[in-house]
User: Fold this.
Amino acid sequence: MATKTFSRRQWIKNSSIVTGSLALLSGSLTDVLAVPTSLTKYVSTTETMSGEMLRRQAMAEIKARLSANENPFGPSEKAKKALIEAINKSYQYPMKTLTELTENIATYEGLKPENIMLGAGSGPLLQAAVVHFGKMGGNLISGDPTYGNIPNDMTEYFNTTWKKIPLTSDYKLDLDAMEKAIDDKTVLMYVCNPNNPTGTTVDAAKLKAFCERVSKRVPVFVDEAYIDYMENPKEASVMECIRKGSNVMVARTFSKLYGFAGLRVGYLVAQTPMLEAMKPLTKGARSISATSGSAALVSYNDAEFLQAALKSTTESKEFLYKVLKKQGYDYIPSSTNFVLFPIKMDGKKFVEEMMNRGVSVRYWKFNNQDWCRVSIGLMEEMKTFEAAFTQIA
Ligand SMILES: Cc1ncc(COP(=O)(O)O)c(C=O)c1O
Assistant:
């Protein structure tokens, strides 16, 4: 992993690009928990964290917060310094910083600034897609289980139906079945790669070919929130489909490997007319604070930090794998900062028992099985997980 990631990080380091970012917190309970709002309101068939449980988690004394796929190894020292330094000028709107960030992303991706739309995290940009495509009614297609924001909200607020396509036997998105599910009412194909909550990825070449073909029929939205955890994000990303002019959208966030979940910076990359159509539906860069903008600008270029965060994540993840194995549990090997494993008791009870021991995790139900998703935390948190898990496993 280290060798391959190095080339990408090194590229960033060596290039002249330097970037920054922004912030915005709604102050709601879900933001405090860094749990997507939609998950507290709508419980999909597979995602089972109720609003009540979220409230309990907020009140409980949490020793290991392993429920929101955050990166406790971030933000970087450089980002923190940039945040503080940006305070003095924070009476100004941060247009210059955010323009620079947009340009740097465009340069790195070989695209134009007009292909990039910043947002206060990727969540608001996903939400713009919800409204844009939801208005069309029809149906959307995604894997199941997957990240529920777009599908849940399109079905909850609009007349869209959701074609849920089960994963393959190795818990990957079944791209063939997803393609076959397209009909003349399909308005959107949603692909989460790596997929949340399974942490699995699909073959890059296959996904790119899929995007090329499918986008000729329906727009394809690829959520790459966790792509930075992959061995070679540049290769794994479908950004090249956008370079080729295909009707593909890519959502990215600083919330994960960059450690910005509370700072709120993300971006959507797409053909310019698509972004123009979404512009009235989101405040985009205007929701980003001067402080977060400056921190993102520095972080986007911080190869050293990204590699260190990856390394620490891997160490904690390997530790978790060992704990699970030792207790006789299986798990789905993960390309991300979370791991899904099948549990041997009712999911709700499991999560409650863990919470009683100060550990917050999440659970899912699919394939007639209850599953626990553990986010990767500090080694200390993983040891707290081990102590609690060993008691109830
Ligand atoms: C797959 C996926 N997409 C998007 C998001 C939204 O993240 P943010 O709004 O913090 O960028 C998340 C958050 O957990 C996620 O898991």
Q: What stands out?
A: Residues 2-20+30-75+303-392 form a domain with the Aspartate Aminotransferase, domain 1 fold (CATH 3.90.1150.10). The two ends are 31 Å apart (CA to CA). The chain has two domains: 2-20+30-75+303-392, 78-299.
